[in-house]
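Feature request, filed as a ticket because there's no other form

It would be nice if the structure record came with a short human-readable summary line next to the tokens. Right now we just get the raw output. Example of a typical job, pasted below so the devs can see what we mean:
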Amino acid sequence: MRYGFPEQAAKESGNHWAVLVAGSSTWGNYRHQADVCHAYQILIEHGFHEDRIITMMYDDIAQNEENPTPGVIINHPDGPDVYKGVQIDYRGSDVNPGVFMAVLKGDAEAVRGQGTGRVLKSTASDHVFVNFVDHGGTGILGFPTEYITAKEVIQTIKYMHRNKMYNEMVMYIEACESGSIFEGILPDNINVYVTTAANPMESSYACYLDRKRNTYLGDVYSVKWMEDSDMENLKAETLYKQFKLVKKETNTSHVQQYGDTTIAKEDVAEFQGGKDYKQPQPQVLPKVKFDAVRSEDVRLSILQDRLMASTDEEEKERVQGHIDWIEQVRARTVSLMTSIVQLSSGGDDELTDFLMSARYRILDHDCYDPAVHAFHETCMRIPQNDYALRQLYVFANLCEAGIAPKTIIKSIHQACSGNLLM
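Raw output as currently delivered:
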């Protein structure tokens, strides 16, 4: 493992490809689509061919009835429109794990009739850049109504490597607990370098609360790397230099790196610049208040801000009612998790308390993944409850405590009784 290389990247790549994914929907998740649109503009400005960028985003923000500037998406309070010109390949329900994996595998047959049908056509001489932005939890990344597991992500990457779909691949992952997707399971010898917004056990953070739009415009890790890419000559900055800067400036969570870290010696331009690199005019935006908040607290933070600013009693009552509802869902989520643990542990209160508070790394994915699936199908739709995503570590604890998967799943069904919480 080598760091801080003084020399410039030596490897020559073929074509440059990118896959950009915003895995959420709804106005409250504005920031995810804004991040991806900004990433798209960076690639285009630095010489990427638009026919080698594949973009997935629900696309319900630009023309949303809550948007005071229809057709415009911004990623900074004083920033430009980042939506204009973005070519979106997969919208709405086509933004799902199956399409994402098919795109990465170059499986055009699997996406026939969906979106543009475009998939990676990269080869063994090409560089691939993947930017994924959404909610996450222990061992999973979210989509609007579904999720993808760490095991599926790693299997997809290994497939790409076996089938010689890249020379080198770099992935920037913005999600809570995003380190749990790669820690201990991403090989360091398949030419893949990954940085994540957070370690395996913490939230990532939203930023730039916009009171005109009543939503957050960006995510801390994402805007840090993108605002750096906007300012720097990417042929004179290595991936490792960008990682160090983003790690230092993202003081809300612990930015991580995984995989083949020797790739970090290469120029950022090798992955964000395209083969026909060009250096645009640096974009330096004014510094404004960050208003950083944990991802799972975004909805509460927006509502609490509206409550404090409002002078209309009826509106305040409506907003307070929404806040109360969110708090009730949170309390019910914790209560539900506690019940599942109690049932799984045979009613052992001491063991239950321990398993609710401990944090084990996922080692047994064959136990963990079915438990999460059962919870998703029986208790609540996980991607629609970001707070529930923060509680999935409990299933890792149960698995690592040696409790059989069938016992955990039986407890889930018993605790939920087939009634979805939300």
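Something like this underneath would help us a lot:
Confidence is low (pLDDT under 50) at residues 1-10.
Residues 239 and 264 are 5 Å apart (CA to CA).
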